[in-house]
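ok new one. same drill as before - structure tokens go in, u give me an amino acid for every spot. 174 of them this time. try not to just spam alanines like last time pls lmao
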């Protein structure tokens, strides 16, 4: 039996923009597999040292990529991470950069317990559209899309759009 081909989707953007919420819902609706890079690193202890300044472990990017390679080759994976240039370009068929207005984002990150410099720098990251720039440099322009993620209505629209795109992709590739 031949397996159905499925696309790999990257959900990226500043922490707090809604990648996890969207990614999990999308996985439920499509049957694709959701992979949260933060969780994957934690489970596999895929770290390379500790960042004293930010009080967090440093991701071992090579080991993360090695860990995922086989799964990505099979297809049908939704990857969630607040960065995008560590992954091989060939992995993804489409890249979505979620975007949130900075006042909204500030509130979300504050209620997540972020304070001081961590809070400020993450909001700045969104204002400077750092992740969008990173995505545009790492992937072909035509596969990188920005999605507004301010309201539940935005979330529904994004879900609908990605579901439609996924169905179409599967039709075209099988
Ligand atoms: P991320 O995975 O990008 O860090 P998340 O999915 O954990 O973000 O969401 C952060 C918070 O924002 C969480 O409380 C859910 C809320 N949220 C996510 N998307 C939203 C949207 N489109 N509208 C309103 N709130 C949203």
């Amino acid at each position: 039996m031949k397996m159905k081909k499925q696309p790999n989707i990257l959900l990226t953007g500043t922490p707090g923009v809604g990648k996890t919420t969207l990614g999990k819902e999308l996985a439920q609706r499509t049957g694709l597999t959701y992979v949260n890079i933060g969780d994957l690193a934690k489970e596999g202890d895929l770290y390379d040292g500790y960042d004293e300044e930010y009080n967090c472990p440093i991701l071992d990017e090579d080991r993360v990529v090695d860990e995922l390679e086989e799964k990505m080759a099979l297809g049908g994976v939704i990857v969630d991470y607040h960065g995008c240039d560590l992954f091989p370009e060939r992995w993804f068929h489409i890249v979505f950069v979620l975007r949130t207005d900075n006042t909204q984002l500030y509130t979300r990150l504050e209620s997540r317990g972020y304070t001081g410099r961590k809070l400020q720098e993450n909001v700045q990251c969104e204002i400077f559209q750092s992740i969008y720039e990173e995505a545009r440099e790492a992937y072909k322009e035509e596969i990188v899309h920005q999605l507004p993620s301010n309201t539940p209505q935005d979330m529904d629209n994004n879900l609908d759009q990605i579901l439609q795109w996924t169905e179409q992709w599967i039709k075209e590739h099988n």
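Residues 53 and 146 are 31 Å apart (CA to CA). and btw The longest strand covers residues 94-99.
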